Amino acid sequence: MSTGTEAHAPTAGEYIVHHLTHLNSTGHAQTAIIDWSVWNLDTLFFSIGLGVVTLLILIKAANGATSGVPGRFQAAIEILVEMVADQAKGIVHSAESRKFVAPVALTVFFWIFLMNSMDFLPVDLLPRIGEMFGLHYMRVVPTADLNGTLGMSIGVLLICLYYNIKIKGFGGWIHELFTAPFGSHPLLYPINFLMQMIEFLAKTVSHGMRLFGNMYAGELVFMLIALMGGTATVFGFLGHIVAGSIWAVFHILIVALQAFIFMMLTLVYIGQAHESH
Asked: Which candidate in 25, 184, 206, 245 is catalytic?
């Protein structure tokens, strides 16, 4: 894709690098996977926008719920609600906590599913529209940005810390940090604390990395398939259509599965915060 400054059609490498570049707060090309000093404006826009859409859909479902025969929309939402409620009941054993945790898990699943689904849009559609308004870089899949997925996993970490303190008390949680998993001998306090910190860090990083890795790979595959369509041959065009269709069908499973896995790990980590070592 041309940014208006090139005198030649982009090579395959230039095309992919362009599509992997975020619209950020610096106004310059930034291809680093993660940079805490830069705001990726496209990730913020699409994630917040889809978050609002998620809330509007769930609010509409709640306000329109009836006790009679449900319509298709209500039936679909009820299936999701029951699925999440069943999973939450089996993992988080506090009925009081589930009043908050289950709706959070449902929102997380729906939100991530919508963000993942942005991958189904034609690769060049929104970036081309953005170029009409002077936006030469735009990535439309928020979950293909490690900054976004780590932000969500950090949010889950904060909820876990909240429940650790709420369920065990601040003193009880601090005691657990220094006495688990190896015992309460004073010589083991530093080792126990280090292991606890490593556990929190590993769970948070892997939680965000898993979602990012799958969606980033899926985004790259769609870009490679799009390049096939740019070849001036019949086989390239047909290959683009066939490969794109097959990958899109397969990607539906990835989109739903990754949303489900992130939701389940959220429930598991919050459930672990309710347990004492």
From this structure: 206
Residue 210 is a catalytic residue: yes
Task: Mark whether 72 is an active-site residue.
Answer: no
**7 vs 199: CA distance, rounded Å:** 52
Q: How far is it, in rounded angstroms, from Cα 111 to Cα 104? A: 10
For residues 27 and 119, give the distance between their C-alpha atoms in angstroms, rounded to a whole number.
24
63 is catalytic: no
Instruction: Read off the pLDDT of residues 193-242 as tens digits, 9 standing for 90 and up.
Output: 999 999 999 999 999 999 999 999 998 888 888 777 666 566 666 766 77
Q: List the chain domain ranges.
A: 12-273
In three-state secondary structure terms, 137 is coil
Cα-flanking dihedrals φ and ψ of residue 94, to 5°? -90, 115
What's the helix, strand, coil split of the chain in %, to 5?
75, 0, 25
- Based on DSSP, count helices (H) and strands (E) in the chain, helices before strands: 9, 0
C-alpha 47/C-alpha 187 separation (Å) is 46
